[in-house]
Amino acid sequence: MLTDVEKKILVALQGDITIHPAPYAALAENIGISEETFLETLKSLCDRNIIRRFGATLRHQKSGFSANAMGAWIVPEDRVEEVGILMAQKPEVTHCYRRNPTNDFPYNVYTMIHANSKEGCFKTAQKLSEETGITNYKLLFSQKELKKTSMSYFSDEDD
Questions:
Q1: Would you state the CATH architecture of domain 67-141?
Q2: DSSP characters over 51-105
Q3: What is the chain's Cα-based Rg?
Q4: Is the pLDDT of residue 125 over 80?
Q5: Is the pTM of this model over 0.70?
């Protein structure tokens, strides 16, 4: 069970965090606690695996990347961890994860590749293929962004 302070911290972290010299201090002040309490509670939430991942959402078009592609790869199960680590280390790759394959779509490792052009995405995928030895893959290019938001688990009204 989460405390009221933990819920307030989760609400504060769900949305956009404004650019600020001390962002956690500003978030803490907004919910009426000290920065120290905010950070200690945040660490506890992470240690207890309530928060498993904490990261930024890149709006690739606004950052100068005009192309992105989801790379869908067929990776032998005994190499998923090794290949995933190699792919995830590349600066052009912002997401890398494993999913269960299906009969209709046998791919089990996915990468989100960003570049300045479709050709750049193809080159990155080719480089990943050469470095990992994984040759069975598809690139799925985004046509239009329909929605891009973070999940919201709590709201201010949940108090």
A1: 2-Layer Sandwich (3.30)
A2: S----PPP-TTTTT--EEEEEEE---GGGHHHHHHHHHTSTTEEEEEE----SS-
A3: 19
A4: yes
A5: no
